[in-house]
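Consortium newsletter contribution from the modelling node. Members have asked for a concrete example of what our holo predictions look like. Here is one, prepared for the NDP complex that several groups have been discussing at recent meetings.
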Amino acid sequence: METLVFYSDLDDFERWRRLLIEALPDLEVMRAEEIEDPERVRYALVWKPPRGFFARWPRLGMIVNLGAGVDALVDRDDLPPVPITRLVDPNMARMMAGYVLFSVLRYVREIPFFERMQRESRWEYRHPRNAEDVRVGVLGLGALGACTARELARQGFSVAGWSRGEKRIAGIECRHGMESLADFLAGCEILVVMLPSTPQTRGLLDAERLALLPAGAKLVNVSRGDIVDEYALDALLASGRLGGATLDVFEREPLPVSSPLWSRENVLITPHLASVALPESAVAQIADNIGRIRQGLAPLHCVDPQRGY
Ligand code: NDP
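And here is the predicted structure:
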């Protein structure tokens, strides 16, 4: 019998085990400390395992990253030469699109303003805007970014997207490559960051690039905190040059109590939960990939450690 070894400090092992065994009754699903025969371990489903973890399984055939973002995994120097896959799940994408849609609508419908007015018992009418007049830019058009861009377009917003390679998505103005970034940023009333954290994207939104956004623009970051220079962002929010930010991810998590972002009125903070791994739907993809390995096929949704995503 083949074994899948599970490691995560955050996720519910029993739930994953039950669902994986339901999908693959001939698979054994165990935590590392339960395993007596390391030779049987063919698959690892992991979120941030400790250093040296993979060396314990000499016949490992595939690593599954328990999440969509792989920056914590591909940065390590103890990876065995086996395919690394990540979770790509339509329900996870829908959850992410829902978070971003909420954030964008909250700005467009001026909810922070009405919340303030309510606290003062003031009836202040502000006429709602046409969605088409609002230009939303999505940085990153991958599994999550493309789904989110489509959802925003479905709501009628004017949506532009930016990726590394050329893309075509109906209803989205697609741009790509560094040469188009400055122009792209200058056209975004609301900028949504959905890029993976890689050597190329870390610090991408520095003070200079953030300053290219139109005055009063809003920023929504749902991918990784280190893509945005948090210090520069805070300064632009403090001065009012940027109108607001919705931040789910940060350079350091948990966000330190000393961060000025906590008390900025124009900032909404959530603790890294825009989208989470959903075992009920993600198990199908893992089972499918195990089936592919057993048939000698390459698994789907592989990560390229060189590229970083
Ligand atoms: P994908 O790998 O599917 O897509 C990444 C996108 O970013 C692609 O469109 C890619 O371009 C683009 N990209 C990568 N590098 C560059 C670059 N240097 N310049 C321009 N574009 C670039 O990722 P997902 O959509 O699945 O996820 C995005 C990120 O969301 C994850 O990496 C993770 O960090 C984060 N995340 C956050 C969660 C949360 O709860 N806050 C939950 C889950 C994920 P191309 O298409 O050309 O390759």
